[in-house]
Design a protein that fits this description.
The protein is built from twelve helices and 14 strands. With 359 residues, it is an alpha/beta fold. It has one domain: Aldolase class I (TIM Barrel). The strands form four sheets. Strands 3-4-5-10-11-12-13-14 form an eight-stranded parallel barrel, surrounded by six helices. Strands 1-2 form a two-stranded antiparallel sheet. A two-stranded parallel sheet has the order 6-9. Strand 7 and strand 8 form a beta hairpin. The longest helix is centred in the middle third of the chain and has 20 residues. It is globular and about 60 Å long. The structure holds flavin mononucleotide (FMN). Flavin mononucleotide binds next to strand 4.
């Protein structure tokens, strides 16, 4: 375990340890996308992580996917996030914001009046989305973006990165997984474009690459990360050759000298996403999926990652870093309160010492 607690430099980010809190959508923002008091407390409680990647956050209203999902587009959202980053920095932590444009994963029952849903092509995703006002709903059929429209969204990503810095974030991470907009461009099943953003893998990778390039130009490459999950089929994602497509984007991203690549294990064992990332991107890797006390120590060595990220263990263990260090047992979490508003199941989990005292 010792290696996990050693400091690490990732681009301009100096991590005190190699335990990263992975991004988790928890739907605790206000209806206006403004971070709330419980979010300030939640992230502050976890401020001893080497790095926190804050939840998927929309760069513009069109990019919103979920109810009570935060944005980083308005002055009130920036001010709200500033309180979050202050709470994390007060604990000596680092926090970057995950920029998530949902593309076709969205619903007019969630977005503000008149806000549309857009995507690379006018192809509706299969499946349904939870809405607060109308229950389960099919995804909107998106409007296909014009080439100019794509370029405008690239610029929205640059502005989101500037806004994140204004809000005190140490950097940003582009959400390139789970069937949201960058992955909709990457995947042949959702991208039927005939302009320079569609067709070959190199063209399908162009949108994510340009977002990264412009975010890097806005705030410095050493403060920009990318998250990928080769082989992911979530949210109706289909690609003719996910490994080859991801290899292409990793190769392009490697030319930008980014802070890191945050890579998730592929869902099928035939695809070794960690090896692919190492070969195409290099050494600044944050590895994710399924790590815990039993396998974390070996994972850094076996997979030659720079750091590991943990999502679910951070839900019930605000003091996960200390628990891993001291070998204390981990608490479980309540699935029913994952996405409900308020403090229950969000800021209500105790640190081990406090839990032990009240037990
Ligand atoms: C409640 C919840 C919300 C999540 N939201 C996001 C998100 O906003 N962005 C993202 O990239 N991944 C998201 N994920 C995926 C996690 O970051 C992580 O990849 C996954 O849980 C596997 O890691 P783990 O085994 O440590 O839990 C979410 C996962 C959970 C459980």
């Amino acid at each position: 375990m010792k290696q996990l607690f050693e400091p690490l430099q990732l681009g301009d980010l100096r991590l005190a340890n190699r335990i990263v809190m992975a991004p988790m959508t928890r739907n605790r923002a206000g209806a206006d996308g403004v971070p709330t008091d419980v979010m300030v407390e939640h992230y502050g409680q976890r401020g001893d992580a080497g790095l926190i990647v804050a939840e998927g956050t929309w760069p513009s209203a069109v990019g919103q996917s979920y109810c009570r999902q935060p944005g980083i587009a308005t002055p009130a959202q920036i001010a709200g996030w500033k309180r979050v980053t202050d709470a994390v920095h007060a604990r000596g932590g680092l926090i970057v914001l995950q920029i998530m444009h949902g593309g076709r994963i969205g619903s007019r029952h969630i977005k503000a009046e008149g806000v549309e849903t857009v995507a690379p092509s006018a192809l509706q995703a299969a499946g349904e989305i939870v809405t607060d006002i109308a229950g389960m709903q099919p995804y909107d059929t998106p409007r296909a973006l014009s080439t100019e429209g794509v370029r405008a969204i690239v610029q929205e990503h640059a502005q989101a990165a500037r806004n994140a810095r204004e809000a005190g974030f140490d950097g940003v991470e582009l959400h390139g997984t789970s069937g949201y907009l960058p992955m909709q461009f990457l995947s042949s099943g959702s991208n039927q474009r005939t302009d320079e953003y569609g067709g070959t893998a190199a063209h399908r990778a162009r949108f994510a690459f340009e977002c990264l390039r412009e975010m890097a130009a806005a705030i410095g490459a050493g403060r920009v990360g990318l998250r990928l999950n080769p082989g992911n089929t979530y949210n109706d994602t289909r690609d003719e050759d996910s490994a080859a497509t991801h290899a292409e984007l990793m190769r392009q991203a490697a030319t930008l000298n980014l802070a890191y690549l945050h890579v998730m294990r592929a869902p099928t064992p035939e695809l070794d996403a960690f090896a692919l990332a190492r070969a195409q991107f290099g050494e600044r890797l944050i590895l994710n999926d399924g790590f815990g006390p039993d396998n974390a120590a070996a994972a850094l060595q076996d997979y030659a990652g720079a750091a590991l990220s943990f999502a679910r263990h951070f839900i019930g263990n605000p003091d996960l870093v200390e628990r891993l260090r001291a070998g204390q047992p981990l608490a479980r979490f309540d699935r029913k309160t994952l996405y409900t508003p308020g403090a229950a199941g969000y800021t209500s989990y105790e640190c081990y010492s406090a839990a032990a005292l009240t037990a």
